[in-house]
Write a structure and sequence with these properties.
By secondary structure, the chain is mostly helical. Helices cover 58% and strands 11% of the residues. It is built from 20 helices and seven strands. It has a three-stranded antiparallel sheet. A two-stranded parallel sheet has the order 1-2.
Length: 404
């Protein structure tokens, strides 16, 4: 393995690697044979060093691969519930963990769902958590469907009942871009609202020709973006969104009820597929993926959204789609290409990037997207076609940089 290379891990060291998403390193780890594992362990022992891998359990859904890995690696399950409970409840943590785990084992609630509920209640205070626990005990004899209805009373339709584009956009951003800062959340909301307008009826009092008061009804055109700026706090509450401090002190946006994100995701994907498609198109055409000051959370949200759309609608997300995605960067560059040809436009952009010293930023973002696509077998031909277009543009150095 690469970790045994000279200089990677010195003597008497602990190397901690956190794996939160699917990657080639994890795939290689799960497929590693006993001989390679034994050599690596022997090398670590000689160095008096230790390698610790922290892996998101959702990535170990392939039980066959996980069981193979158990034959060569020491795998331990670290209870996330215990971590959450001990932090707030101290001595009671182990007892309550067993109780909560029993609800999960009986299939009354999915593990991730339980984590979200527990964390949200604990962050709201011990009283909120105790109320949640008492509620669970009261309904534990009911069926899973009845428990879900009791514990998840808010539906997507409740949030989107008002015919307001601002509410829909705010709910969309909250669903597909979790844990954004307030600034970035508003930025994406305003980007998606764009210059769209609505007609509203307003009344005002005026003096008539005889001096008496008259009520005037008039229709005016209002930009949705202006309504957001005027009523952001009200819209926030209507959408059950809230802010909370992250570990680094930044206030981030999330749903006040953790289950709402999944409910709204299903709603947008299944009940509003054309709206979902249109929002993805807006984000793509805006060139948002290449915004220079976008946070990692926002970039991950965009890449996840684009890859999801490519998987769901492969006919519309071939090599031309990737070229159009890259063309979104034109917004950040001055001037216009001499030809509308996709290959010529790509070549022009790469030359401009070299001039502006933005090439590394552009290639990092593009490589992030391509890497995620390569993790999905069905999207690999799209990446191959795109790289072929890059070759045709004559930018071989850019291709080499991208691959490296």
């Amino acid at each position: 393995m690469a970790i045994t290379a000279e200089g990677v891990l010195g003597e008497r060291r602990v190397l901690l690697i956190e794996i939160g998403s699917r990657c080639s390193f994890l795939d290689a780890l799960l497929d590693m044979d006993h001989f390679v594992t034994a050599r690596t362990v022997e090398w670590l022992q000689i160095q008096s060093s230790c390698l610790v891998l922290v892996i998101n359990e959702d990535l170990l859904a392939d039980k066959a691969a996980t069981n193979r890995a158990r034959e060569t690696l020491d795998l331990y399950v670290v209870s996330h519930l215990r971590y959450l409970l001990t932090r707030y409840l101290d001595s009671r943590a182990s007892v309550i963990e067993v109780e909560l785990a029993s609800y999960v084992q009986r299939g009354l609630m999915a593990p991730q769902e339980m984590y979200h509920h527990v964390e949200a209640r604990l962050m709201s205070g011990i009283d909120a958590f105790e109320a949640f626990l008492a509620d669970l005990r009261r309904v534990s004899s009911l069926s899973r469907a009845e428990i879900r209805e009791h514990l998840q009373p808010i539906d997507a339709e409740d949030i989107l009942r008002e015919p307001s584009e601002v509410h829909r956009v705010a709910a969309f951003v909250g669903t597909f871009f979790p844990a954004l800062s307030q600034r970035e959340f508003e930025r994406l909301v305003l980007l998606l609202l764009g210059g769209e307008t609505t007609t509203v009826e307003r009344t005002r009092q005026a003096l008539g020709s005889d001096g008496s008061a008259v009520t005037i009804h008039e229709e005016i055109t209002e930009r949705w973006a202006d309504r957001w700026r005027r009523s952001a706090d009200t819209i926030f509450r209507d959408c059950h969104l809230s802010t909370s401090p992250s570990e680094d002190g930044v206030w981030t946006v999330s749903f006040s009820e953790p289950y709402l994100g999944e409910k709204l995701r299903r709603y947008f994907e299944r009940s509003a597929p054309w709206y979902f498609r249109a929002q993805c198109a807006k984000l793509q055409e805006s060139g948002a993926l290449f915004f220079f000051d976008l946070s990692l959370a926002a970039v991950e949200g965009l890449v996840g959204l684009f890859v999801e759309r490519a998987l769901a609608d492969p006919s519309d997300f071939g090599s031309p789609w990737l070229l159009e995605m890259v063309h979104g960067l034109r917004i950040e560059l001055a001037g216009e290409p001499s030809s509308e040809s996709p290959e010529e436009t790509l070549k022009w952009m790469l030359e401009k990037l070299a001039e502006a010293q933005l090439r590394a930023h552009f290639l990092r973002r593009l490589a992030f997207l391509l890497r995620e696509m390569l993790e999905r077998e069905g999207l690999r031909p799209r990446v191959h076609e795109f790289l072929s277009s890059l070759i045709q543009s004559g930018e071989h150095s850019a291709l080499l940089d991208l691959v490296l």
